[in-house]
Amino acid sequence: MITRTIQPFIEAAAHVFQTMLNLELRHQPPRSIEQDTSHHDVSGVIGMSGDVVGVVILSFPADSAARIVEAFAGQAIPLQSDDFADAVGELVNIIAGNAKSRFGDTTVSIGFPSVVLGPSHKIAMPSDAPGVAIPFETLRGRFTLKLGLREAAGLEAKSHAAATGARS
Amino acid sequence: MRIMIVDDSKTMRSIQKNVLKRLGYAEIAEACDGRDALSQVGAFDPHLILLDRNMPEMDGLAFLKSYRGRGHKALVIMVTTEAEKPKVIEALKAGLNNYLIKPFTPEGLSMRIKETLERSAAA
């Protein structure tokens, strides 16, 4: 995991929560996680491809998910409903989309989100990308943003060329 | 004014619909992707379309090209996470009238609609 892809996610999460949920975020320092780490009760998952490849997971304890989704959707939504999964999926979609716009000179596509429910569920992280977890707290509860991302071959050279002003 | 919201997320459609209702718009239709939107535009005949870009079945750009190709003239604002300049230019070339990046505030959506309508009236 290259450090420069972590900060865009921290900034994107803060921006999305402030703008659409009117919630301030506080975060703890990013920490490494294992590929088979357990997640909270509700997770929104979205894939990235292109110059940055891997997976983004937005994982909540159930009580936090209920309160945060209520702030996002503007109404309480039952945890087991399709609408609840839709809201969690849209939230991770907007965060990932906003983060990729902060990557700089890269071409990155994001997939369609999926949502996993269940206590301490597991989601396979990419084996070729180090995992990182960033815990966040809000007045409506807590969540963890987990990233299993790597830069695709060639991006390092592209970034170096841009940084040094080289032309290709 | 008739407004159509095209987004695969029901939550996002609901958020936008609530803003539109607060602004006084009552004639609102919803579509879950481009194909669904194309099936509705003939009967609903919207004046304004709020269009997501990344959707399954038919995405926002494909919808826009097909919609304009059929001669429809409604104002279209793309409401999307895709903020990269080439994607914005691509959509403008396909007949897009304005762009709003997610995340947005209710005020941001309101202002973008107002701006789009004013531009159209001045043209």
How would you describe what is shown here?
The complex is a heterodimer of chains A (168) and B (123). By secondary structure, chain A is an alpha+beta fold. Chain A has one domain (3-164): 3-Layer(aba) Sandwich (Chemotaxis protein chec). In chain A, 34% of the residues lie in helices and 29% in strands. Chain A has helices spanning 6-21, 62-73, 82-100, 155-164, and strands at 26-27, 31-33, 42-50, 52-60, 108-110, 114-117, 131-138, 141-151. In chain A, strands 1, 2, 3, 4, 5, 6, 7 and 8 form an eight-stranded antiparallel sheet that branches. In chain A, α1 (6-21) packs across α3 and α2 packs across α3 (82-100). The two termini of chain A are 26 Å apart. In chain A, 40% of the residues are buried. The mean pLDDT of chain A is 89. With 123 residues, chain B is an alpha/beta fold. Chain B has one domain: 3-Layer(aba) Sandwich (Rossmann fold). Chain B is built from five helices and five strands. Chain B has a five-stranded parallel sheet, with helices on both faces. The longest helix of chain B has 17 residues, at 106-122. The radius of gyration of chain B is 13 Å and the shape is globular. The mean pLDDT of chain B is 95. The chains are: A alpha+beta (168), B alpha/beta (123). At the A-B interface, α1 and α3 of A face α1 of B.
